[in-house]
Amino acid sequence: MSSQYDEAVEQLMADYHRQLDQLAEHQRRMSEITATATSQRKSVSVTLGAQGQLLELKFPTDAYRDMAPAELANVIAEVFAAARTQVLKQQRELMTANAPMGMDLSKMFGDNADLGKVLPRDPIMTDQVREYVDNGRVPGMDD
């Protein structure tokens, strides 16, 4: 026969393993993010991966042949930036959807990103853990 303490520990371990599984799924989904952007004149198309790596650079038409080298370089840079913006948007959406309650992940992105503003002052924990941390006992256990 297990005690209430044993049951509480088992519940905490089950919660931990569930969160670990969710984290693995989240990481898998993050790694699958890609984005493609195409220039206005359809002269250049760029596909980036989750880490901003170039997966594909295409010239769908022959329009690039009529461009000066500097113009072509600028178009490639602009399309690359547009694809990067799309990748970051997808990452932000996925992370926000999977963020722990009380965490505002929007502060992790952009020019003013600050991890210190993302993490709550007091750690997020279950009521059982909070009771133990605050009072040194497992809720519902007889003293």
From TrEMBL:
Coiled coil: none
The keyword Manganese belongs to this UniProt entry's keyword annotation: no
Keywords: DNA-binding
Cross-referenced Pfam families: YbaB_DNA_bd
Superkingdom assignment: Bacteria
Statement: the UniProt record of this protein carries the keyword DNA-binding: yes
Gene Ontology terms, MF aspect: DNA binding
Protein name (Swiss-Prot/TrEMBL): YbaB/EbfC DNA-binding family protein
Originating species: Kutzneria buriramensis
